[in-house]
Structures are given as C-alpha cells and as structure tokens.
Amino acid sequence: MRIELVKRPQQSALFSALSPFIAFGLTVVAGAILFALLGKDPVTTLYYYFIDPLTETWSLHELAIKAAPLILIAVGLSVCFMSNNWNIGAEGQFIMGAIAGSVLPVVFPEFQFWFVLPLMLLMGMAGGAAYAAIPALLKVKFNTNEILTSLMLVYVAQLFLDWLVRGPWRNPAGFNFPETRNFHQYAILPEILPSVGRAHYGFVFALVAALVLWFVMSRTIKGFEVKVLGQSPRAGRFAGFSAGRMVLFAFAVSGALAGLAGISEVTGAIGQLRPSISPGYGFTAIIVAFLGRLNPLGIVAAGLVLALTYLGGEAAQISVGLSDKVVRAFQGMILFFVLACDTLIHYRIRLVRPAAGAGEARRV
Amino acid sequence: MKKTILALAASAAVLIPASALAQDKTKACFIYVGPIGDFGWSYQHDQGRLDVEKEFGDKVETAYLESVPEGADAERAIERFARSGCDIIFTTSFGYMDATNKIAARFPDVKFEHATGYKREHANVSTYNSKFHEGRYVQGVIAGSLSEAGVAGYIASFPIPEVVMGINAFVLGAQTVNPDFKVKVVWANTWFDPGKEADAAKALIDQGVDIITQHTDSTAPIQVAAERGIKAFGQASDMIAFGPETQLTSIIDDWGPYYIERVRAVMDGTWEQVDIWEGMHEGHVVMAPYTNMPDDVKTLAEETEAKIKSLEFNPFTGPVNKQDGSAWLADGEVAEDGVLLGLNFYVEGVDDQLPQ
Amino acid sequence: MFEAILITIATAATPLLIAAMGELVVERSGVLNLGVEGMMIMGAVTGFGVALTTGSPWLGIAAAIVVGALFALLFGFLTLTLVTNQVATGLALTLLGLGLSGMIGEAFIGLPGVKLGTLYIPYLTELPYVGRLLFGQDPVFYMSIMLTAGVAYFLFYTKAGLTLRSVGDNHASAHALGIRVIAIRYLAVMFGGACSGLAGAYLALVYVPQWVEGMSAGRGWIALALVVFASWRPWRVLAGAYLFGAVSIGQLHAQALGWPIPSQLLSALPYLATIVVLVLISRNRRLTMVNTPASLGRPFVPDR
C-alpha cells in the first residue's frame, strides 16, 4: 500500500481555509506530547506558550515589536520567492539598511531637524535595496547563483558593521566600547501608544507594507508578472515580461523592505548601532514567509504567530522551567505541519493497494 | 474587656504582617547572554545564582532567562522580570546597558544590577565588574617563567577595554620574569565559537608559541593545546578536565559573594546604588589550583597572587611604556581606574594593532 | 610548520567537503535540501553522545550516520511523498535539528569527549614534510577523499549514476522511461543525510571533541554554497572546500603574524573569495547549464 497524490483540478477552497487550523491543531497536540515527554505538564506549558503572552497589554506591544521586522522582511521576501528569486541574504540587507540610515545621526549628530527621521528611513531603504542589487546584478550579468551570493554577503555585512562600530563610528564618549553614540531625539522612531507599551511605528510600516504588497500582488499587472515569471519564465517571455528586470525588481523591493526593517529596529528598539542588531531576523523571516504561504496578509498572521512562540518560550522558561532550546524545535514543528497540511490544498490523497486489488482505492 | 480585645487585636495586627513578611520571599532574577551550558561566562553567573539559593534557602526564589540577545529582546526580558515580581534583577552583559536603564526608570522599586557597564542613570541601578586582569597578571608571571620561546599566544574575543586590559596585564606579568616576553594576538571576533577558537589556537601554536591563553569562553583552545602538549590557561571556570596535564591555572569568575551580598542588602532594606570593581581582594577573582608546573614557579605565582590580594601591589604599576615606546606610567605610578576602564592601547611587547 | 598548517586546513575543510558531497548527490537527483545544517548538528550530538556513553568513537560515527539518514528521511517524506515546498521544508528541518540537538545535548554540556585517533603507518607517517599530512590524519579525512572519488566515479562512470543524473535533469522524461524517480530521490536524500550526519560527527569527535549548542556554526550553509560553487562537480567541491578552509585558516595566521589588516576584513575574506571565484566560474554559461540539474527544486508528482 502506498500513498498517492492526485492533483486537484483547482485548489481546494475548503482546505485553503482549514489548513492553517489543522496545522495548528496538530502542532498543539505534538507540542503537548513533547512537553509531557520532557516532564512538564502539557496544559500549563501550552497555556504559557500561546495564551499567556496575549493576556497583558504590554505583552501585546512586545508581540508587535518582535513581529514587525519579521513581517516587513517576509513581505518583501514573498515577492522574491514568488518570482523564483531566492534571496537568502535579507539579514545582510537589514544590516546595511540600518547602517545607511544611521549615517546622519552618527556622522552628523548636530544636524537635528524633524525631517532627519524620514530621511533616515528613506536612506535605510535605499541602502538595503542597493545591497540587494549586488546578488541581483551578479545573477543577471554573470549568471551567478543568488542563493550563494546573497548568503555570503550576509557575513560580509555583519563584519562590516562590526568594523564600523569598533573603529570609525565608535562613540567617543563610550569608554571605547563597540557602539556608536546614542541617537538624538529626532532620530528615534516614536512609539505608537507610549503610555501602554513600547510598540513603535515599525509595526505600522509592516502592516502598510503588507497591505500595499498584497494589493500589488493580487490586483495589478506587476503582481501577475511576478507570479508568471516565477512559475514559467518561458511563458513570461512570450508575454513580454523581462526576467532580468524582474530579478532586479524583486531584489530591490525585498532589499528595501529589509533595509527599512533594519533602520526601524535601530531607531525604534535600540537607539544606536551595535555589533549585533539582529537576532537572525533575516533568516527567521524566510520561515515567516513560508508560514504565511507567500501571501502578504498570511505573512502578517504568520509573523504574529512566530513572535508568539518567542514570547511564549520566554514565559515558559520562567514559569515552567522549559528550556529555551525547545522554542526552535517547536518552530520547526509548526512549519512542518503547515507545509504538510498545505499539500491537501493542492492534492488529494489516495491510499492505493498494490496491483492485485486494482480499482480498490480509498479517497480522502 | 475592651482592653483585652484591643490588646489581642494589636498583637494580631503585629503578628500577622510579621508572619506574612516571613513568608515573603525575595525574588532574584538573572538574565544571561549565553547558554548556562557554555561552561564560561554565563555558566559562572549561574553558579553565582546557585550560591544565592544555597545561602538563603527558603527565603529566596530565583529565576533566570538564558541566551537573551542584546537589543529589543533584552528589554522585553528585563521588563518581563520586573513585572513578575522580581526584587532584584542581574543583567549580565555589557550590551544590556541601555535596556537596563530604560526599564529601571519605569520600575523604581526594583533593583537592577548591570554587569560590566558604566551607566547608572537612576538610583536603582548599580554596576559591577571584576578585576579579571589581576588574574591575567599572575598568569603572565607563570607564562614568563615557563615559556622557552618567550612568546605566548592570546586568543582574544573583541577589542574592548576589558580584553585589552587583560592582554596588557598578562604581558606586564610575564615581563617581570622575562623582559623580552612577547604576545601574539588573534581576534576570534566571537565570545564563543569552539571551532574558530580551536583553529586560532592551532594557528598560534603553528607559529611557534608555547603557551596559550584565551579571553574567549569555550574549552576548545585548551583542548587543542593539550593535544599538542602545550601548556595553557583556562578561562572563566576551571577547565582542568579538558587539559589535565597541561592546564596551568584558570581565572574563575566567582560572582557568588557579590550576589549573596546584594541579595542580602535587598532583604535587609540596605540596598544602595554602587559602582564596584573588585577583584582578588574581595574574592571575586579566584585562581584555579596551580598545576602542571615546577614548585618554584608555583611559589612565585602564589606570592604574586598574595601581593595582589592584599592590595599591596597593583598590576598596572609603572614603569610601563606604551607599545610605541612612549612612556605611560612613571616608576611607582599606578594607573587610574578611569583610564583602565577605557583602555584602548597596548603596552610594549604586544605583537598586534588595535583598531583606532 | 607548513605541514601543520596544511593539516589544520584539511581539518577545517573535511566537514565541509563531506556535507557538500552528500548534498551534491541530492541536488543531482533534482532535490534541494536546505536542511544540511540541521542534519549536521543532529549528527554531531548523536555522535558525541553515543561515543561518550559507549566509549567508542566509531560507534558514535555509525550512529551519527544513521541519525542523519533518518532525519533526511523525514524531509524526504514531506517533499517527495507529500510534495511540499523543498526550500521551506529544508528550513524547517534545520530549525528542528537545531532545536532537538540543543535539547538532547543538554546532558552533554561541559564534558570532554572521546576523540578519534589518527592513523599511524610505521614508516610512512614519519616521512618529513608530507608524512603526517598524507599518512597521519584521522580516518574520516581519508573517508572524505574516498567519498569524493567514489561519488565522482558513481555519477559519471556508472549506469546508476547516469540514471540519477537523468532524474535530476528531467524527471518527467525519466519517469516516462520507467525510471522510479521517487525511489531514487529517496535514496539520494538519505545518502545526503548520512553524509551530513558524518560531517557533524566529525565536528564533535575530531575537530573539537565536545558538545556545544549550535556547534555547526553555519557550516551547513557553507556546504550548500560549495555545491553551487562547484557547479555540481565532485572534484570542484573538494577544491572549494579546501579553498574556503585555506582562506579561513590563513586569516588567523595573518593575525597571529601581526599583519596590520583589520581582523574583520580578514574574517570576511573567505566569503568574499567564494563570491569572486563563483562569479568567474559562472561566466561560462554553457558549463553552468550543462551541470545544473534542470529539475532542481521542482516538485514531481507522477501522473498515471
């Protein structure tokens, strides 16, 4: 007996809606089993993981803070991945965007006007886009695989940031510690509702970007172009779309959004440049993009869910004593289940008995 | 009758809060930048936490979060602790500095202790640090006595003042025995990456050093050195298990005494803001047993340690020249704490360039 | 001294080489498995744990290979039978591997491990200059060289290898010819997992005999990059692995020698070098196209 997949004539609408819930249900069950095996009470642990972070306002704000860069980057990545351009270097674009945007407060700290912040955000986007253009150009001009180039450039960006904050951009009043000066007030991204929590406008950017890109991808010719070129470059060529230009466009969009995420994080949450400004957002965003099924609105939900697992992991660490290593295993499990359940959207599963029982097939 | 009732009520009023107070545990919370399993920096801090638990037993409750990245996550973690009833929070990494101060502003009743930082923007923030370089000086003395090549290999993490202080102290110690002693430095650009640290150790040994010391946190360098029969110094904890025949000693960060003292201060209500930088004298820097060396070197090491411990001698006492030959400390002059805490230049004998 | 440096380079290059070789076979069959890092670290924790508990590094290596293959089987089930997106599934595998290994490894923290011994042939190992390099290294080093030769021979000189390559180039045609595409891919994926597991065991039993959370330190990603770098040709993978290893070790030596170049620039050299060489290689479009498995990453569902 083996499992056989029969492609559905069109995507099952039922499962499109149900699949995330089934996946979530399976994750909860698997998680409960895992916690029980580790000797923790499954129900309490699940509570701390998924419910507790939602019970307080300050925690909801923290959720927004954690999810914002993930959503912002993932939304840009969805454009890339849909067009079959594999940008694995979002982490590097995040960092370069943060650096590009920070030029003003670090190198010209006396230049303090209200328009410094908007300028920084724009420069951040430009910096991220420019850095993403490198693997894009190498792909278009020299046919170099973008997975490798974008990934290698991540390490380069990290080392460049390290050199900057230890050397030329080091805070003169900082006891020679590796950090830039603290940004002045005009270079800080304000909080949305300061009295209740510290969520900053980065979250708003994320939501806006998601909406805009959702609109572009589903309602405009450009979106159509992205999808066609991603699925069949030949068909795209016949339609008059240029694959080369799409590479540049996709990388530029994704780089700009990653750069925006970078400068938002630095101006919102950190307030200066340091050797380490990202706990791997660029890579986690890839997961968020897939969890959200490369759909900008789905990505918003996915980003929030993933942020929830981070916060829940912390809560569980303190209250139940669950090790923080479980968080990553858990996230891997969620992704596995989501991917597996998505199969049901595109395919019908049949269990087929070997040839002797020809014709006897049970359908699911 | 009324008096009796009043008396009873009064004693009840006194007794009940008293018993409630007796039930009231002090909650001490710790935030680590790495895993407690790193057997180095975070591990030692956690040992300090365990010492607190041992000392106070039922009267204290501890909690910890490990592997908290610096940045937004740190702020959230600290706030979480502040909100969950912690009375004192220890943030054990330099990068938590701004986050600690920000949260301290919002929770004036909670005490914050920030390790290796320099900002104390509110009255409820203290900073604390250890004079690890004192241990490095003793290590230098041992290295100077034992090394035949006259060169030691130093696997360093990042060029921050604490690390530079360590390198300088090491060299100065070695030069008291061998004035021509040199140090080769390799920057691993990480606090913890066993593969990279192992490679760095190999590179240094291949270039002819015969003593290895490190300011990174894994046991890899001492393992590599042990394989090649090269003597080495451990870091942060006693790493003798990884180099039973080659570890000379190790600097052990013993945070227990300080943590116990501060938690007690919270319990007594005597907690005040401090900025402390203590070392051997207060028991914050401890040397692992001196092993694998001839007795006369061991005696010399013990004597040097005793001098530093009794505050008789400060490792940074002149005459000392900077790397370029210019004079830094005159004969008998002792370096100021402020200069040391921001140290970004080498003394003579270091074979490396610092980023400026 | 040079011999010692070369040996250090070989030690650095070996795990990359082994993992990349496994992934090469996987990708040649048309599957893209980004979970190398996860499989590698599972191999590391298994190898270390088994070696520590049984006292035998060889048992550790065997266990690591098995675990790597099993982990890859999970990936195979999802991507080959359930036809999930390969990139995403590979990433999920990495996450799961990193998390699980951390959980399992908690028991092994701070314990010195068992180290695999090195080879010793009475006369040959004593040879000056090349003795230890050629005849005095650990067994896994020799395995890595034999693996390279074996994979090269298999892919280009055997019928089975040709079949595998055809599956990777055009799975529809291969299927039409009656070739069992899914079965071959399953085998390839498990082979890749076994190699990654072995590479991980090498890290924990030879490179630094201890267990540390996350000790693969991104080597899985480098291995993936090396496969692309090598245009999917086995001997080029070896060249790439050693180039990367040489630059990585070289920069440490440059620092130890006291060269006045910022250490960050030196640390960045291996990555920059990889990009530069890749650009030079890929300019030859024909060579790239001939060697790239055309069906790489594309889902395959056999229609009746």
The count of strands of chain B amounts to 15
Biggest sheet, spatial arrangement of strands of chain B: 12-10-9-8-6-7-15
Q: Helical percent range of chain C?
A: over 70%
Q: Please write the CATH class name of chain C.
A: Mainly Alpha
Essential attributes:
B: 356 residues; alpha/beta; Rossmann fold; seven-stranded mixed sheet; globular; C: mainly alpha; ABC transporter involved in vitamin B12 uptake, BtuC; 73% helix
How is this structure best summarized?
The complex is a heterotrimer of chains A (364), B (356) and C (304). Helices cover 41% and strands 20% of the residues of chain B. With 356 residues, chain B is an alpha/beta fold.
Question: Can you give a write-up of this model?
Answer:
The complex is a heterotrimer of chains A (364), B (356) and C (304). Chain A is mostly helical and 364 residues long. Chain A has a domain of 227 residues. Chain A has 13 helices and 3 strands. Chain A has a 3-stranded antiparallel beta sheet. In chain A, strand 2 and strand 3 form a beta hairpin. Chain B has 356 residues and is α/β, with parallel strands linked by helices. Helix content of chain B is 41%, strand content 20%. Chain B contains 11 helices and 15 strands. Chain B has a 7-stranded mixed beta sheet, sandwiched between helices. In chain B, helix 7 runs parallel beside helix 8. Chain C has one domain: ABC transporter involved in vitamin B12 uptake, BtuC (Orthogonal Bundle). Chain C is globular and about 60 Å long. At the B-C interface, strand 7, helix 7 and helix 8 of B face helix 1, helix 11 and helix 12 of C.
